[in-house]
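User: Run a structure prediction on this.
Assistant: Running it now.
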Amino acid sequence: MNQSGYQLVTDLPEAMRPWRDRPTVWGNVSPSTGAYRLNGAGEYLYYPGGGTEGFDHPVGQAQFGLGCVASYRTETDPARKALFLTRARAQADRLIAQHVEARGGWWFPYGFDFTHAVHSGVDYTAPWYSGMAQGEALSLFVQLSELDALTSVERAAYMAATDGTFASLQVADDGEPWVVNVNSAGYVWIQEYPGAEPGAGDYTYNGMIFAMFGLYDYAVATGDQAAADLYDACATTIARYFPLLRNTRWHSFYCQTHRIPAPTYHQHHINLFTQLHRQTGSPDFAEDVDRLVDDFPAPGVSGTVSFEAGSHTLYRFDTAATGAWSAAKDDALLESKVVSFSQDTAAPASMRRRIHNRGIYYLISAGAYTGWWVGESWSKAYLRGVQLTTIYRPTRTVTFPGDSTPVDTFKVAADGTVTSVKTVSFANPSNAPTDRRAIVNGRPMFQITAGGLTGYWVPASAVTTDAEPAVS
């Protein structure tokens, strides 16, 4: 299997470690209605149609358990803390009780038949298995084994479960069950939805990355080189196939097999690639995050739009009532008009988002032009302030051009007020560290963290970054 030498960062701050960003909130610690709820033993099961018969759903169980572990780590109320731990252990114990041993590994069966509503070929009769479930169960067992509240015997039992679970991820697709294969080009895949034939599957991106978090947890906890090598190989695969995940200037694709844009997964991809950057320290994945943010930024951004004096074209698009994208309406252009302002002015905007097959636009939310959209265009029309910040860990490097090319850099207050401008130029290309990227007054910028430009933002268009170009 191909490997690029991605190394694991083992000293991540607690908040940046896997699953800490997905806590189970207190109001959801005891779900009792709906399709996913607890049985009398506190075990998270799937009840089709909200009915009375519950089935094992290993991904649901592992994720619910991991969310409870995340909340346990930060909860201060003793009673709540105890219940979070009880819930987490119930899911892990259920997975252990229901596991199947085959081909030298532990496997966690889904207890119901399943046919994917959109993806052809994803059609299973129970029991069936998923690489996403195997990796997430691995994370749950590792994380429970690290909690001091458990006895040494209990922690050892969970570590034993990690060994059996990891063994399932070392099994190839030359027998049943399997969830890992190496494609014809030598790239390894952990299949969320393995196919009926060896090497067949959905090649789902998010499912594989979530499984990788289990490899990270296991490798960091045990020092196991085989787990670190498999993580490296998986990271190599994700980096290689990012161009197929990416859907330039729109929602990214859910899987490689079907290449269907996935609006509900695009922000997941941004979060997952952010974690890959942190877990490996590689700028490759940070660059991928930047591309995804620009392709379809999170639309929950509002504020004040500054208009430069002069003419502006405003648009009405066919959207959901909130201004969000609707598949049925697809941002069809309804009308446009040109307006002119004799002096600089401003208007409130309730949304900033990508309009399909167009650029980034702002939805004006008050005044004479309520309901109209204006395109983001520095310095003609831009949203004031610092938006959609991506924090890099470790820091990255940007390079200023040589040949004495002048570059303007800016200190900016939270409301977008420019408090200082510094123009720099260098005879030779010059490097500077950056710990973040954001949309600053309507432009992607990097903030410099050392030297005479500390605290200044530099437009992304004026510098180059340290990332390797994506493989095409």
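The longest strand covers residues 386-400.
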